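Example record

One chain of 260 residues, shown exactly as stored in the release files.
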Amino acid sequence: MLAKDIALIIEELAPLKYQEDYDNAGFCVGLPSSEIKGVLLCVDVTEEIIDEAIGLGVNMIISHHPVIFSGLKHITGNNYVERIVAKALKNDIVLYAAHTNLDNACYGVNRTIAQQLNLQDIQPLAPLNTEPQAGAGAIGNLSEAMSVNRWLTFLKQHFSVPCLRHTRPSKSEVQRIALCGGSGAFLMDAAVAAGADCFISADFKYHDFFDADGRLLLVDAGHYETEKCVLDIFFDVLTKKIPNFAIQITGKISNPIIYC
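Predicted structure tokens for this chain:
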């Protein structure tokens, strides 16, 4: 099977036109016409994951985050991106990413998180003008209100984190929940306008918590933690279309953040 045929399966779910202007989704390294023996799925491409692909004998890696985000002027091994690109090229490994196009897809990252959190009446938080069922973030409702303490405990368990960063609760219960996998601070005002009691995302800055205080419960659940569901999304869509093909989820954790 050719790399471009595998990419097309992903793009049926997450068209490249859905990606944000700053993004670099699609083929990062390698030829779309490459014959693929197997696929490795990951959130981030690291040197360790390249080595894993080599050991498994697969020659295509599909990640959520593009390894090349801004232009490369040199490939001399001076940083981890250059080393990853050089090793992929040397070993004929194709690198492909589905990033904000998968975030914004109708059945992409954010709807998946919302479904996993048992939300109902799920809609995009910031719909695309051309396709209102697609867009950034998601918002929905719990079937019944939940106490803040119980909700925060549930989130820690769901995202497998030992702690959460969050604002002081202004309400004793939450029911209407907004979310955005990864860095979603840009959607906080939209969450407030949509009547959310809680907004879950990651990478909030110090002053974001001041801005949210009294408006809603702001919860930072971690960037990797809120996006690791991409592994299940990739695996499900690919195995349904090509069930007898070698598709594997990485056994490595690429999260660079350690809790202690």
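Notes: The mean pLDDT is 96.
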